[in-house]
Each structure stands twice: as C-alpha cells, then as structure tokens.
Write a structure and sequence with these properties.
Blueprint: H1 6-15, H2 20-23, H3 26-31, H4 38-48, H5 61-74, E1 86-91, H6 98-108, E2 113-114, E3 118-119, E4 134-135, H7 138-146, E5 150-156, E6 160-165, H8 166-174, E7 178-182, H9 185-194, E8 199-204, H10 208-218, H11 223-238, E9 245-248, H12 252-264
Parallel strand pairs: 1-7, 1-8, 2-7, 3-4, 8-9
Antiparallel strand pairs: 3-6, 5-6
The protein binds adenosine-5'-triphosphate and the ligand Nc1nc2c(ncn2[C@@H]2O[C@H](COP(=O)(O)O)[C@@H](O)[C@H]2O)c(=O)[nH]1.
Subcellular location: Cytoplasm
Protein name: Guanylate kinase
Keywords: ATP-binding, Cytoplasm, Kinase, Nucleotide-binding, Transferase
Length: about 270
C-alpha cells in the first residue's frame, strides 16, 4: 500500500472538499501524522490559528498557507529528482557581506539557484545587467509590480526599489532546486508571509566597527548614502531574532559553508 504524505492528503482535501480527505477534521488529520499526539496537535493548531472544529477541505486561504508552510517545514517533499526543495533568504545589514557570501556559495555550489533581483538603482562600475541585477527604470518596476511578476519588493534604504522576479524562483523550486535570495529585511518578511516554509538566515558582522569599515572600504557610496545605509543597518540588526538562523561573516568561505550546511540540513 502506498503511504500518502500529509501534503498529498492536504492537496486532495483542498482540490475536493467533498472527498474523504476534505471531510476530515484538522484534528484527525494532524494525529494521523505519526509524530503528532493530541497535546502536540492542539499546540500546532493554536500556533497556526486554526480552530479544531475545522474540516481540512474548509480551510480559508490564510489557514491553507499556514498548514502548508507547517508541513513543508517539517516534512519537506522530495523534488522530481529526489532532492529537497528549499527557498532560502540571506539578509543582514548593509556591507555585512551578503553579496560576497552569496557569490561564494554560487561559485562553490552551482546547483544552488541564486536569484537575480530587479532594481531601479543605477549599476555600479563592473555590475552587469542580468548578472548582478536587472537594472530597470521606475516605469518598468511599476509594470513588474502591477503584473504580479515579483515575489516580493521593497524600497530599500528609503531610496531605490528592489524586487525578486517570481517566475525563475517558481521554476527552480519546481525543478527541485534550492533557491537563494539575497534581499533586505522587508523582503525577508514578505517571503516569510508568502512562503512560511522558507528558511531565513541573518548574516552578522563580527562587530559594528567592522561593518562600518567594510562599507567604507567598498568605496561604492558617498558619505550621505553610507549614513543612510547605516541607519537602516541599526533597524536590521534589531530584527535578527525574527530569523531562523544567524551566521557571523568573519571569513567569507566559512560563512558560505555555514549557510550551505543550514540549507542542506534536514528541515527542523
Ligand atoms: N568576511 C569578510 N571579511 C572582510 N571583508 C569582507 C567580508 N565579507 C565581505 N567583505 C567586504 O565587505 C564589503 C561589503 O560586502 P558586500 O558588498 O558583499 O556586502 P552586502 O551585504 O552585499 O552589502 P549591501 O547590502 O550594501 O549590498 C565588500 O568590500 C566585501 O569585499
Ligand atoms: N527586498 C529586496 N531587497 C533586495 C533585493 N535585491 C537586493 N536587495 C537588498 O538591497 C540592499 C541594497 O543592495 P545594493 O546592491 O544596492 O547594495 C541590500 O540589502 C540587498 O540585500 C530584492 O530583490 N528585494
């Protein structure tokens, strides 16, 4: 007999609320999962904000997302080639080294799909369109938003707009690939809301002074922009507890290895 995964049962329930899966109470559904007893079941329903009298086929949109996210996080399904699919967000304050660590991950692990964002920021010397960013004007960014082509988007440092093109992410996840997004705090929060199963990693500097040193040393921003970015950095650092994991970027190769280990680790 083929054992049906919890995700498959949920899919069947949502596809046909009149089916036996759809008519199942959420309580019955959760206790049908071997690791879940009655005490744990009630805690989970409470955390997910789902009433115990709900039927699986009668979950509202928010409840579906919450249940799906919960299942994906604890029992990730293998992709078509047997791999685990993961959406990973790498965030952290300006100049902590997110871009540098992401580039190292890409170099060492070409199997990890690194998202290329769209931005209204002008390119820095050496940045290539389509490689570092898709550099677009305000009108094109408006269009991307209006056409729902972005998974998340935000105005970062109160200045330029940045967003994650949705389609390449969906395609990579469907192919069973791990996808890495290097984005800001606002974007990380949006991804968490849209995809509760995403893994959120916060990159920390060894110290505040080192962060300032890296920002100045990069030499890509003038004094006013640096001050603006450091103001955001304080807000971002204060949010670090919202993230699933924190990694200190003392050394690029070690930080990249640590992030990859988290990504490849079995889901919590
Ligand atoms: N572990 C490290 N040790 C020393 N320097 C580092 C380290 N990681 C990154 N750097 C340097 O710090 C500077 C900032 O790095 P990077 O541009 O990757 O930061 P970022 O977090 O992507 O910044 P932003 O959010 O502003 O785009 C760069 O000059 C980079 O070479
Ligand atoms: N919310 C998003 N933030 C993004 C995205 N791509 C990059 N970023 C973040 O913007 C700042 C500034 O980047 P910079 O290249 O101008 O230094 C940095 O924190 C990036 O992580 C995105 O698609 N969405």
């Amino acid at each position: 007999m083929r054992v049906i995964s919890p995700q498959e049962l949920l899919r069947r329930a949502l596809a046909d609320p009149e089916s036996p899966a759809g008519a199942m109470r959420v309580t019955e559904f959760l206790t049908s999962i071997p690791a879940i007893g009655e005490g744990k079941r009630d805690r989970i329903l409470n955390e997910l904000g789902i009433s115990p009298v709900k039927k699986l086929g009668g979950l509202g949109a928010r409840q579906r997302r919450a249940m799906q996210g919960f299942l994906d996080e604890r029992w990730p399904e293998p992709g078509p080639r047997g791999e685990r699919s993961r959406l990973v967000v790498l965030a952290g304050p300006t100049a902590v080294g997110k871009g540098t660590v992401a580039a190292e991950i890409k170099a060492q692990h070409p199997e990890i799909h690194l998202s290329v964002s769209a931005t209204t920021r002008p390119p820095r010397p050496g940045e290539a369109d389509g490689e570092h960013y898709f550099f677009v004007d305000d009108a094109e960014f408006d269009r991307l938003v209006a056409d729902d082509e972005l998974l998340e988007h935000a105005t970062v440092h109160n200045r330029y707009r940045y967003g994650t093109p949705r389609r390449p992410i969906d395609e990579a996840l469907e192919a069973g690939e791990t996808v890495l997004l290097e984005i800001d705090l606002q974007g990380a929060r949006q991804v968490r809301a849209a995809e509760p199963s995403a893994t959120l990693v916060f990159l920390l500097p060894p110290s505040w002074d080192e962060l300032v040193h890296r920002l100045v040393g990069r030499g890509t921003e003038g004094a006013e922009e640096r001050a603006r970015r450091l103001r955001t950095a304080k807000v971002e650092l204060a949010s670090q507890n919202e993230f699933d994991y924190r990694v200190v970027n003392e050394d690029v190769a070690s930080a990249a290895r640590e992030v990859v280990e988290l990504v490849k680790a079995p889901a919590r």
